[in-house]
Amino acid sequence: MICRIERPVEVEPPEGLVIDSFPSGELCRAALVDLINATHAGSSDSQVRGNWARLLVRRLEAGIFGETSPELWLRALYRGQPVGIALGAVKNDVGYIVCLGIQPDWRATGLSTILMSAILDRFKRRGLAAAEVSVDPANLKAIRFYEKYGFTRI
Q1: Is residue 153 part of a domain?
Q2: Is 149 strand, coil or helix?
Q3: Number of CB atoms found within 10 A of residue 54's CB
Q4: pLDDT tens digits for 120-129?
Q5: For residues 101, 147, 134 and 83, what is the CA-based torsion angle, rounded to 10 degrees?
Q6: Range of the domain at 73
Q7: Interval 34-90: pLDDT, tens
Q8: Neighbours of 120 (CB within 10 A)
Q9: What span, in angstroms and rounded, lies between the C-alpha atoms of 58 and 124?
Q10: Which residues make Cβ contacts (< 8 Å) with residue 116, sequence separation at least 6?
Q11: Burial tier of 106 (Cβ tally within 10 Å: 0-12, 13-18, 19+)
């Protein structure tokens, strides 16, 4: 799915919620894998099994999805505890949303909208005009979510 990046929706996070860049380093890599697994717990995404998160991080680091940097690896912290993640990359002047995940207790709270706005804003600040995301065609909930942001199937 792809969309033109217009002005991202401005959403005020609730008190105690912070969106920041994921720190780098070996210990943080393990924490990143754990957070990806936790935010995809109970997901209908058929790919989310076993070593999927570890493989995803390796692919990100290897540049498979395009150029990435710490400013495109976002995490949502509530009172210091990780509750969500949005990972992005840039390839051929297009922002690519590699992963967007929310802890089960935080689903349906608006956190996905906050993270989506934050990652699109990071892409926009880099001068990008479009964003892309790959979605399992069977994951209708995710497809509807991305369509709210103007993503269309390609």
Answers
A1: no
A2: coil
A3: 15
A4: 999 999 999 9
A5: -10
A6: 2-148
A7: 888 788 776 654 355 557 788 888 888 888 899 988 889 999 999 989 999 999 999
A8: 24
A9: 26
A10: 8, 9, 86, 97, 100, 145, 149
A11: middle
Encode 125-140: b = buried (16+ Cβ within 10 Å), e = exposed: ebebeebbbebeeebe
CATH number at residue 49: 3.40.630.30
Domain count, the chain: 1
Pull the structure tokens for residue 121. Answer: 């804003």
Sequence-ordered alpha helix ranges (H) in the chain:
26-39, 52-62, 111-125, 140-148
> What amino acid occupies position 112?
S
* Tokens representing residue 34 in the block: 């754990």
Question: CA 100 to CA 116: how far, in whole Å?
Answer: 8
- In single-letter form, the type of residue at position 39 comes to T
